[in-house]
Amino acid sequence: MKTIGATSVFKIYICSMTLNYKNISINYTVKGEGDALVLLHGFLETIDMWTDFVPVLSRTRKVICIDLLGHGKTECLGYIHSMENMAEAVFAVLKYLRIEEISCVGHSMGGYVALALAEIYPNLVKDLCLLNSTFEADDHERKVLRARAAQMATTNYENLVRMSFVNLFAPESKVPFASEIKKALAIGLQTPVQGFIAGHKGMAIRPNRYEVFKAIKGKKVIVIGQKDWIVDEDLLVEKSKNTGIETVIFSQGHMSHIENKYELSYFLKRFIEK
Asked: Taking the model in full, what pTM does it have?
């Protein structure tokens, strides 16, 4: 089926589409009917991270998964992909689908994008889950690490991605989830160098969006891995007190969709309940 500005291919009730946006292609999928639930992947990930969750979530929701700029089958828009750039690309998909209100789950960088989307379009995001993510901006040390990674990517990309990716998991997760990690790493290695650099530079310049998150009118949840070195559990829990923000703690690292898959599946089913 062809439509103006988009092409679509249907595969077993999942609609995989490509939207033309600012001379690039944005890849996304749609499954199910009902209120919209948008799932945004993290850095070095694609919509494939949601494969095992979509069948259950789409029983009661229209589930939309979007490859963010420079990831998966979505092309790069520039050499710095700010979170606002990515949010506008997400909005372009939602506008095309004529969706005016969403619940959203954003993993890591996807959470940063979701917060930018909520700031730009405050009436759009009704419920928001930050999955292994944060409303905090990068501190100086993190910005230095991102700048170093962007520079290294031009000369030693594969080793850099391998090292960065494996460190996202809790040490004890690496053996029992070896096959899942290998599969996810293979997907991450397909991220183009430009997408890697543009993503790091975009994350480094994002502002603190604590007030944006507090202003969400519906459900506000942060899912935190106890062994996730990327986010500050104590800080997030403390700042969430008396704000209407719920914190959920899982036992492992930054990749809860792999390391705490069953716990996350149970949580997400509860999150989308009205």
From this structure: 0.94
